[in-house]
Backbone:
């Protein structure tokens, strides 16, 4: 099985594809016609329905946002701890 080359798409293109899907064009047809992966189409449709945005940061759940914040705090505390250890 050959690996696909990673493609990048503009937000406008993604929105057009989602509109095609929502207007009733068959999923398989869209995937074949535009050479998309099924997971990409599903992801775009979900993002469009949930937040209206295709940016990853705007599509995080509250739990994912909290986890990112806690990781930042943990890293800050570890750095402060290291500084205090060196000061002894």
Residues:
């Amino acid at each position: 099985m050959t690996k696909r080359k990673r493609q990048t798409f503009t937000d406008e293109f993604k929105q057009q594809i989602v509109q095609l899907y929502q207007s009733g064009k068959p999923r398989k047809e869209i995937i074949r016609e535009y050479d998309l992966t099924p997971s990409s189409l599903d992801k775009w449709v979900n993002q469009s329905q949930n937040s209206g945005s295709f940016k990853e940061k705007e599509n995080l759940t509250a739990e994912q946002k909290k986890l990112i914040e806690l990781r930042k705090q943990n890293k800050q505390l570890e750095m402060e701890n290291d500084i205090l250890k060196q000061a002894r």
Notes: The chain has two domains: 9-54, 60-88. The radius of gyration is 20 Å.
